[in-house]
Specification:
5-stranded parallel β-sheet, 18 helices
């Protein structure tokens, strides 16, 4: 489609943005609209998926027919079949009369199934039949009925994963996905953020009869850098909050920071993130690596404590001399190798490294227990003095005593 046509669609449906991803999605919707192919619209929550079924309907030959939008996730599982396909009087408790379903009511028009991934498996089978043959049966009836309905579905789920986990029928997925339309997230359309902010600020000012807010350059940079996990919906909420609450009409970076959540999962500004923050693990093997690296750090810290203790008592050669760490333990402990844990293709090496580390860790526990016993004996069981001698807190010592079952010392 031409740029002019796409611009007309934006104006008609109040779509704001100049990004290539957005315009490509609109172009795809216009290209598929004259056909009767099923369309599956995917994208994160809040990106504006609800606009595209309306575009498809209004630019199709069905534009004078009925249009219904149904949120599949908001209808209880026990009544979803009745809502979509209708029911006969007496078919279940509360069915006091015959009822038309959406597929019957939308005959000759378009049916938008939002959150289609939430449909129960039994309903998915019914939906597949009506998509393939145009036939359906009301709940409590044995009569086959026909319907000419164009279905447009939308979801924020990863449908491939849902199919692999058995939560969504594979045949239904491919039937719905005749033409896929992917709506990009707001963080992938950063050039659209200032335009959307200005639009929402202007609408809010007009609605509540107040001067519109504007941004300083620094505030605009922060706005663009933010991750926007709630996408357009979240940006609209933030803009309206600032418009209503702030007396100052020129919004600075400091003001903007107060309205951007920093401590919620998935809601950290891009400019403030660190490599270690928000890290996710792709599989159990990566979790094991992280645990081993954390244990290695603890091990090195403990080794340093032992070295410091030996430096303070260089004449110690046995546990009987000073009650400090026995030389036979300390030398073995300080020289003990730590297997290099690297992510490589050889699982055998990984397992061997992990095994060496676990074996070494067990030996350290024995050393630690021996040190605590000697410290307690040296100070006549006075735990405060023993804790000071070991350079640990008294609380930690109490915990270790309980862990090693040394309460009788």
């Amino acid at each position: 489609m031409s740029k002019q046509t796409i611009q007309q669609v934006k104006q008609r449906f109040s779509i704001i943005g100049v990004s290539h991803e957005l315009e490509r999605a609109i172009d795809t919707a216009l290209q598929v609209a004259p056909t009767d192919l099923s369309v599956l619209i995917t994208g994160e929550s809040g990106v504006g998926k609800e606009n595209f079924p309306q575009i498809i309907h209004q630019y199709s030959r069905r534009k004078h027919g009925p249009y219904f939008a149904i949120n599949c996730g908001s209808i209880p599982e026990g009544t979803i079949d009745s809502e979509l396909f209708g029911h006969e009087k007496g078919s279940f408790t509360g069915a006091t009369a015959n009822r038309k379903g959406y597929f019957e009511s939308a005959n000759g028009g378009t049916l938008f199934l939002d959150e289609v991934g939430e449909l129960p498996m039994s309903t998915q089978a019914r939906l597949l039949r009506v998509l393939e043959t145009g036939e359906f049966i009301k709940v409590g009836s044995s009569k086959v009925e026909k319907s000419d309905v164009r279905v447009v579905a939308a979801t924020n789920m990863n449908m491939i994963q849902a199919v692999e986990k058995g939560k969504f029928r594979e045949d239904l997925y491919y039937r719905l996905n005749s033409v896929p339309i992917r709506i990009a997230s707001l963080r992938d359309r950063k050039e659209d953020v200032p335009l959307l902010f200005r639009k929402f600020a202007s609408d809010c000012a007009e609605r509540y009869m107040m001067p519109p807010i504007s941004l300083t350059d620094e505030a605009k940079e922060l706005l663009i850098a933010y991750r926007w996990p709630g996408n357009v919906r979240q940006l609209k909420n933030v803009t309206e909050q600032i418009s209503v609450i702030e007396q100052e009409r020129v919004i600075t970076r400091e003001i903007m920071e107060r309205y951007l959540p920093k401590q919620e999962v998935g809601m950290i500004p891009v400019s403030q993130t660190h490599e270690s923050e928000g890290k996710t693990f792709a599989n159990e093997r990566e979790i094991l690596y992280q645990v081993l690296f954390d244990m290695k750090k603890d091990l090195n810290d403990l080794k340093q404590v032992v070295r410091d203790m030996i430096k303070k008592n260089p004449s110690s050669h046995s546990s009987e001399d000073t009650g400090r760490l026995p030389v036979k333990y300390s030398e073995q402990f300080l020289k003990a190798p730590f297997g290099s844990v690297q992510q490589n293709e050889d699982n055998k090496d990984d397992v061997q490294d992990a095994a060496e580390y676990i074996e070494e860790t067990l030996a350290i526990h024995e050393v630690e227990r021996d040190m605590i016993i000697k410290a307690l004996e040296r100070h006549g069981g006075t735990r405060k003095l023993a804790a000071n001698d070991l350079q640990i807190s008294e609380r930690t010592l109490y915990r270790k005593i309980k862990e090693y079952q040394l309460e009788d010392l």
